[in-house]
Amino acid sequence: MKSATKKTLIIFDGVCNLCIYSVRFVLKHDKKRRFIFTTLQSDVARDILLHFPKEITKKDSIFLIKNTEIYSESTAVLLITKEFGGVWKLFQIFWILPKFLRDSVYRFIARHRYRWFGKKDVCFVLNKTIANRFL
């Protein structure tokens, strides 16, 4: 687990199709293998999130934990895309928008994600090629 502590952790909704697609997208574009993952539904996530303020962790959001700091909603998404480089750096333009506006858009999509993209009956299932990237 020591090597995992130097990685940036993404906690995502393991039954949300949009979230699962997003994790696959991150896996594909994370050429330097900076990210590790766990699902919101896991015991690992529950234990980790206990160490952060409830006003942050009660959100229906993706969480990014980097250097003992936690980020959620649009900030987490922007910090993730920042690591990709290349054309993905263009997403950094959204930092100019006020956080309340960025997060409002994020929450709107999050509220409708199951209806628009669907939901799995069971949590995200790993295959052997990516299992070492998950806690």
Description:
With 135 residues, the protein is of the alpha+beta class. The protein has one domain (3-133). Helices cover 39% and strands 13% of the residues. It has helices at residues 17-29, 43-49, 54-57, 73-82, 99-117, and strands at residues 8-12, 35-39, 63-66, 69-72. A 4-stranded mixed sheet has the order 2-1-3-4, covered by helices on one side. The longest helix has 19 residues, at 99-117.
Q: Looking at the structure, what is the overall shape?
A: globular
Largest sheet: 4 strands, mixed
Q: Uncertain segments of ≥5 residues (pLDDT<50)?
A: none
Count, helices: 5
Structural domains: how many:
1
Please give the number of β-strands: 4
Rg for CA atoms: 14 Å
**Quaternary assembly:** single chain
- Give, in order, the helices and strands: EHEHHEEHH
The first-to-last residue Cα distance is 9 Å
Keywords:
135 residues, alpha+beta, globular
